[in-house]
Amino acid sequence: TIQFPEPVLSIAIEPKSSADKDKLDEVLARLAKDDPTFKVSQDPDTGQIILHCMGEVHSDVLLFRIRNDFGTPANVGTPRVAYKEAITRTARKHVRKDVTLGEKQLFGDVTLEVRPSRDSVAPTFVISDLSPNQEKDLRKFLPSIKAGALTSAGAGSIAGFPVIYVQIALIAGDITTYSAEEMYAAAAADALTAALAEGAPQILEPHMKFEVTVPDDYAGGVINDLQRRGADITDMGAIAGARVVKGNVALSKMFGYSTMLRSLTQGRGQHAMEPYEYKPIPADEVKKFTE
After folding, report:
1. Of 35, 58, 82, which one is at a domain's C-terminal end?
2. Structural domain contains residue 116
3. What are the strands of the beta sheet with 104-116, ordered from one edge?
4. Per-residue pLDDT band at 215 (split at 50, 70, 90)
């Protein structure tokens, strides 16, 4: 199976009139089918349609196709960086749910451990810590435990961003005669939320690999601009009459870069970007997400 990087930028879109809604839905479905790196979702709170893209250029191309190739007028919001959260240390939590609803008693009991892991960007769920007897006893409830935990991982403890780079391990769980699947899901969700909060979480932002090709006469200005944006320049090569500058930089610092590059090089510079990795945001930027 081919794996594609997670989208790093989101943008809200809506039809200009209610009459265009069905057409926009059809266009987005077709684009998502043709492009596996492009995803569409709906904000559960606002109902807005959200486009998830691989960067600013990717979103510009998609919006051009929507409006021009498919002739679908649409209003578009401001692009937003796809921030994430991740833990930096292992944490473990036990949650027991024992409630009575009318004459019915419901029970669920789960112990989860969260571990920093770079094996996968998306959260993973493992049961390898269970003994064979524990796994046998909990087998009926494993799908509910996994679903509860992974759902809870969709919102981190700092600012509610999705959690990445984490392994979720089921350590233990008790059962009774009145064990209920929904209680195990609820216990897993609460255990994960509590464990994430104790895992020294941090906010991450996507960084992009870039390659900028620019005529020699304009290289100085382009390099100065990249450094001003906090870019980590890793290589500078030369081809006939031009420099090729490579490195990585936070996506949040690169909005509007196409326009700036044209201005700095009189339209003669070219650049390409692709997702690189997630890195912690600078300490002085954390406050804007927590205040």
Report:
1. 82
2. yes
3. 91-101, 104-116, 166-172, 124-126
4. very high
Residue 2 within any structural domain of the chain = no
User: Is it the case that residue 44 has pLDDT exceeding 90?
Assistant: no
* Domain count within the chain: 3
Can you spell out the DSSP letters for 26-56?
Answer: HHHHHHHHH-TT-EEEE-TTT--EEEEESSH
C-alpha dihedral sign at 80, 279, 112, 144: positive
Tokens 């059809």 belong to which residue? Answer: 26
Q: Beta partners for 203?
A: 85
- Looking at the structure, tell me whether residues 108 and 194 fall in a common domain: yes
Q: CB of 98 within 8 A of CB of 161?
A: no
Instruction: Give the Å distances, CA to CA, from 258 to 52, 60, 191, 255, 262.
Output: 20, 11, 45, 8, 6
Q: What percent of the chain has pLDDT over 70?
A: 99
pLDDT of residue 4: 77
The token pair that represents 66 in the structure block: 């929507």
pTM: 0.84
Does residue 35 sit in the same domain as residue 101?
no
Q: Among 45-59, 78-92, 128-142, where is mean pLDDT lowest?
A: 45-59
